[in-house]
Amino acid sequence: MKLLAELSEGIRISLDSIWTNKLRSFLATLGVVIGISFVVLMGWAISGLDNALQDSINLIGEDMLYIDKWDWSGGKKWDELRNRKNITYQQFKQFSSDFNSAEVIVPGITNWGATVKTNNVNFTGVSIYGTSADFARLPTGNIELGRFFTSFEELRNLRVAVIGSKVARSLFPEQNPLGKYLKIEGQDFMVIGVVKKQGTMLMDFIDDRIYIPIGSFFNLYGGKLDRSLSIGIKVGSRERLDEVREEARGIMRSIRNLKPWQEDDFSINETKIFEEIVSTFRLYVWGIGIGMTVLAFIVGMIGIMNIMFVSVAERTKEIGIRKSVGANNRSILLQFLMEAATLCLVGAFTSIVICSILVFLVATFLPKFIPETGFLQPFLPFEFVLYASLVAILVGLISGLMPAYRASRVDPIESLRYE
Amino acid sequence: MNVNNLNRNPLIELKNISKVYLVGEEQVFALRDINLTIYPNEYVAIMGPSGSGKSTLMNIIGCLDTPTTGEYILKGINIRELDDNDLASIRNKEIGFVFQMFNLLPRANALKNVELPLIYAGINKSERIERAKKALISVGLEDRLTHKPNELSGGQRQKVAIARALVTNPSLILADEPTGNLDSKSGEDIMRLFHQIWKEGNTIILVTHEREIAMNAQRIIRLRDGRIESDELNPQKVVFESVEE
Ligand SMILES: Nc1ncnc2c1ncn2[C@@H]1O[C@H](COP(=O)(O)OP(=O)(O)OP(=O)(O)O)[C@@H](O)[C@H]1O
Ligand SMILES: [Mg+2]
Q1: Residues of chain A neighbouring B119 (CB-CB closer than 8 A)
Q2: Rounded to whole angstroms, how far apart are CA atoms A116 and A166?
Q3: Closest C-alpha to ligand 1, atom 25
């Protein structure tokens, strides 16, 4: 009860004294405001990134394995990878007949940077992606409009195309693309479907794809193109990932005629790799940010400490009065600690307001100029308000400790003697 | 000293109290060997020239300060054995201070100022407000509750300070030159108030330079160079009181 009365009195005094010295308080909290803003903004960027990452993983599916000539992790030497033999369509055929513990197996072969034409538009920078009809059973094969090609169309090497949402927008603006034709390498392909827009920050290339039957792909490019196939395996559940990976590895080794002492000449990639990429990126952000934040907080704490010392010096008389009517040292200590904490808390709220506005503006307008920043969210995650407040209170308590201690030791006789 | 009080327990007892300050190498005796007993509902004036130790004595009696040597017993409690927290709580419960400079919180209104001791007593808000109002009414400031000190006259400020001293129902009211900063009319006002407070059963110790003010008290103690020079009943007051009763 006594503590409660003193606490509410403490808050009242704190707000009163902050309000009386508005400008001074504002300047004193500047460092804290900047420090907290750094933390909040970094956290916001990273949480946006994490969400984008999760989107990408969800898009591909956590249960996907890709047998590929290339290694996604970037951990292997490029020279070494380049010397690997391509994975061929025959090897894929054999693999899919030998291997039967997966939900879906699809081949994929890409020609990047291709140019396609319609009557009046030239569109560069698309990737032509040859695959099988089973691709429709992957999350990335979700259809928005029309349909994916069937295995009949695949086996007959028909010239049909399923296009990514960005391709659709660019080639057929404001039109229904279904039934329209586009030219790839001079050959007409009929558009039969549009894939759902799926671009995330990490995978926006996916909306630039044109999917065609894999046989048609070979017909188009034949021997001109020295490309390795990639084999996509949808395992069905994350738990079976390890088991399936080992099995796939064994089968692939025997298909590739590897001797027991030879290393794998292919990689088995999975989405986990994205998490690693993002986590290093996250480390960079924190690494740069933490340095600045620590600096801002140190400056901020010195500011708070300084202003609290001034406040104690100005109010020795008040302290004397309080002591003469029965305040003990602890009450005075508490009062000034609370004042420092309240000061910082006000700083925290200021920075949250500033950051909210900033974040809203940035997330609304920046992606219009830099589409890659589309992963940013226009609001601060709620828990940040909580964390920022806790950090502020802590900073206030730490930087208020010395001034508050000095206040608690004020000699009431001395302070009341003079006017 | 006061014959009427022989059969009662003393409120305070000072035994061989000295207060020594070290100024450089030199020892300054603010108080030397003070012996003093005061009973409940006494009205005591302390007089003496400047520097004679009046304020020092008041601070020791008010538990703001502790003596260098000697014993101080308040309501049977030996003050020497108490720590800072206990002293704060004694000041809160047993003592009401009134200062020459009023010593009000400048940014708080009259009501808030009077509430202050009750905050440290841990009394809840509604009771605080009620008791602070009552105290302000008893000093005649019922229409100045929300005025800040700078919106009040000197006499009114001192009345707020008196209300603050009274609000905890302390055992002892200590007033160090309460009229020193007031014109004579406001001073008389304040002295009338002290008289009324004393009549209600309170114990008052009052420091003053002025003989006229001291004549309001029942007992007059004179200090010189930190010693008690004289300690006698005020014949006027005693006669006056006995006539009244
Ligand atoms: N903190 C201190 N350090 C040194 N000497 C002190 C201190 N406080 C008081 N004194 C000395 O103690 C003596 C008594 O001081 P005190 O304030 O009690 O006098 P006073 O009777 O109240 O005087 P006044 O009428 O001027 O208020 C003085 O000589 C003073 O100089
Ligand atoms: Mg004095």
Answers
A1: 5-6, 9
A2: 13
A3: B50
Say if strands B95-98 and B172-176 run parallel, antiparallel, or are unpaired. parallel
Rg (CA), chain B: 18
Gap between the Cα atoms of A208 and A203, Å rounded: 10
User: Left, alpha or beta for A126 (phi > 0: left; psi -120 to 50: alpha)?
Assistant: beta
Query: Residue A400 in 3-state DSSP?
Result: helix
Per-residue pLDDT of chain A (419 residues; tens, 9 = 90+): 677 778 888 888 888 888 888 888 888 888 888 888 888 888 888 888 777 777 777 777 778 889 988 887 766 777 888 888 889 988 999 998 888 888 899 999 998 888 888 877 788 888 999 999 999 988 888 888 899 999 899 999 999 999 988 888 888 888 888 998 998 888 899 999 998 877 655 566 778 889 999 999 998 887 677 788 999 999 888 888 888 889 999 999 999 988 888 888 888 888 777 777 777 777 887 787 788 888 888 888 999 999 999 999 999 999 999 999 999 999 999 999 999 999 898 888 899 999 999 999 988 888 788 766 777 788 888 887 888 888 889 999 999 999 999 999 999 998 988 65
- For residue A270, the 8-state DSSP code is E
Contact criterion met (CB below 8 Å) for A406 and A332: no
Q: What is the CA radius of gyration of chain A?
A: 32
Could you tell me if residue A166 is left (phi over 0), alpha (psi between -120 and 50 degrees) or otherwise beta?
A: alpha
- Adjacency order of strands within the sheet including B227-233: B95-98, B172-176, B203-207, B43-47, B219-224, B227-233
* Residues from chain B contacting residue A323 (CB–CB below 8 Å): 64, 88, 91
Ligand 1 atom with the smallest distance to the CA of B56 is 18
Residues of B with Cβ-Cβ distance to A1 under 8 angstroms:
122, 124
Rounded Cα distance between A179 and A188, Å, is 12
Task: For residue A127, give the nearest of A71, A54, A203, A178 by alpha carbon.
Answer: A203
Quick check: A128 and A187 in contact, CB under 8 A? no
What gap in Å lies between CA A191 and CA A123, rounded to an integer? Answer: 15
- What whole-number distance in Å separates Cα of residue A101 and Cα of residue B159? 94
Can you give the residue ranges of every domain in chain A?
2-57+275-417, 64-269
CA-closest candidate to residue A85, choices A229, A247, A225, A233: A229
Rounded CA-CA distance B139/B132 in Å is 11
Ligand 1, pocket residues at CB < 6 Å: B 21, 23, 28, 30, 48, 50-56
Strand partners, A131: A108, A213
Can you tell me whether residue A115 is helix, strand or coil? strand
In total, the C-beta contacts within 8 angstroms joining chain A to chain B are 75
ipTM associated with this complex = 0.93
Q: How many residues are recorded in chain B?
A: 245
CA distance A383 to A63: 31
Cα–Cα nearest to A373, from A238, A200, A231, A254: A200
**Rounded Cα–Cα distance for residues A90 and A97 (Å):** 11
Minimum-distance CB partner of B107 among A20, A326, A413 = A20
Which of A8, A9, A324 is nearest residue B91 as measured by Cβ atoms?
A: A324
Three-state DSSP state, B79: helix
CA of residue A331 relative to chain centroid, distance = 47
The full 3-state SS of A329-340, as one line of letters, equals HHHHHHHHHHHH
Q: How far apart (Å, rounded) are the C-alpha atoms in residues A97 and A100?
A: 7
